[in-house]
Design a protein that fits this description.
mainly alpha, Rossmann fold, 229 residues, three-stranded parallel beta sheet, 9 helices, two-stranded parallel ribbon
Length: 229
């Protein structure tokens, strides 16, 4: 899905609680790993950083701390969905995740483009087990849930969980009754490519444009003050 001149390296986090998607406090602890990975990627010379989690954790923080472009999988998927249909729906993993994602939609100013969304009523552990032992159940459940969203006005469908998006793309499932399913992995990679192209043209993100008045030097000094490095 990436251009021939684009090299994508994938890094994970060392730890992830089973309740990470359902607890704000656990997400807070989890985010520290993401921030350290992001800073490491910049120091290693990468042109952009992509975040693969569909809760877009640390959105404003990562854009504040990094000078390189940052692409978020959920935000990228929302904008792509707006290009593919008049209204989109999220097919979430469970109620807790879907509510957080609907909050992100409002934060991104796209609430008017969102149709009523649905979820699979699964935990992260449920999905991983079904994916391994009964993949057809995943396909059937997603299809049934997506049809309910389509009946309520969705013109494009967004898988609300990263591994679910990969699962569907690997099986070539790109539409339900001719309604497009956003390939969320492709979306974030293509967004990163565009952001890098824009940066090379001179269109770079302004840290102040995202509400921060601290300089990069002040941020790094604060890391030393709090003994993070």
């Amino acid at each position: 899905m990436a251009r021939p001149d684009t090299k994508v390296d994938i890094y994970g986090v060392e730890k992830m609680s089973p309740k990470m998607t359902e607890s704000d406090y656990i997400q807070f602890m989890h985010l520290s790993q993401v921030i350290e990975n992001a800073l490491l990627s910049e120091r290693k010379g990468y042109d952009a950083f992509c975040l693969g989690g569909t809760l877009d954790l640390g959105g404003s923080i990562l854009r504040e701390v990094l000078d390189i472009p940052v692409a978020f999988i959920f935000e990228s998927s929302l904008y792509q969905a707006c290009l593919l249909g008049t209204r989109f729906a999220i097919i979430g993993l469970n109620e807790a995740m879907l509510q957080k994602q609907m909050g992100l939609v409002r934060g991104y100013g796209l609430e008017s483009r969102m149709a009523p969304s649905e979820h699979l009523k699964w935990t992260m552990t449920d999905f991983l087990e079904f994916m391994e032992k009964d993949p057809q159940r995943v396909v059937d459940s997603f299809t049934e849930t997506a049809k309910r969203a389509i009946e309520q006005g969705a013109g494009a469908l967004i898988p609300g969980f990263g591994p679910l998006g990969v699962f569907l793309a690997e099986r070539g499932l790109h539409e339900i009754e001719e309604f497009p399913i956003v390939d969320i992995i492709a979306s974030v990679i293509k967004t990163a490519e565009v952001l890098v192209d824009l940066a090379k043209m001179g269109s770079k993100r302004n840290r102040k444009g995202f509400g921060s008045s601290a300089t990069k030097e002040e941020l790094m000094a604060a890391r030393k003050l709090y003994e993070i490095e």
